Amino acid sequence: MPFLGQDWRSPGQSWVKTEEGWKKTTTDDRNNNVSVESFCKAEQEECFNKENLLLSLSYDMAAKKRKKDLMNNNTKVPYFHREKWIYVHKGSTKERHGYCTLGEAFNRLDFCSAIKDTRRFNYIVRLLELIATSQLPSLSGVAQKNYMNILERVVQKVLVDQQNVRPIKELLQALYVSLCGLVQDMGKSVLVGNINIWVHRMENILQWQQQLDSIQINRPTSTGMTLTDLPASLQLNIMQRLSDGRDLVSLGQVCPDLGALSEDRLLWKRLCQYHFTDRQIRKRLIVSDKGHLEWKKMYFKLSRCYPHREQYSDTLHFCTHCHILFWKDTNHPCTANNPESCTMSLSPQDFINLFNF
Which residues, if any, are the signal sequence (predicted)? Predict the structure, then answer.
């Protein structure tokens, strides 16, 4: 393709388009031999090429602007990945280059549909809480934005369903406290983005907390049998299914009969033995004046000293053979003869530790 303009490396010559084709001429030749019509055609061709160049640049800028607006916080339709499994590689090989980070796994895994699944909801909430307290600065800008979008969906689900209010309140409180400390260190590149963006996100957190505080659980309109209509043995059996002592206390405040059942010593004993080891229980013994163990007081004292036992209906799994991270009910392309033997269940803390390398 010939030059349409002068080049600093050329000896004063330029290409001119004539009726016979492109010709290489000097300045003197152009003044003497090239007609005005040839110059007009060359100028038109040059202007046409410049217009095409500007038009292509405007198209590229428009495409970049649309992509930027899509990933902006103000977008109403955030983009979410919906991959059922991902490959977790911790180093570069001939087949794969780079490694998988916590932010990449958080972006690519299908957490949006997991929120709608009651079996995975508590698992997601606990994972969000752990990321808020310790791993938020390690996420990329896209992952942090995705984190806030998923958190918004969690809050909206709780407001609609009127369930799991307390865990979400604790999650928002932990996130707000963590952001208060991180925003003060914005000059140290702790968080990605402008400080005004994070101040706006903190305002959203406060607004969500106010919405959760003002929530009023509607009484069911059904006139069928309720919990208080059941025999005391069945009521006690239902209470034994609760794994949080605070739920037992709240249930005991419904009526005097349930309050009496919620003080059952055997109920609190089983709750202590479920969450804590025998060694931990022996270190925090509380004996009443009558010589009996105060299992209820011991439970709350142990809760302040040791973490509770975590149990989830569905969790993420990791295949040690093919290094694939997937949900429990999702089939992954494992090449092992016995895939179940090389599969391990991951708690939320194990999921985060998987990327600490």
Answer: none
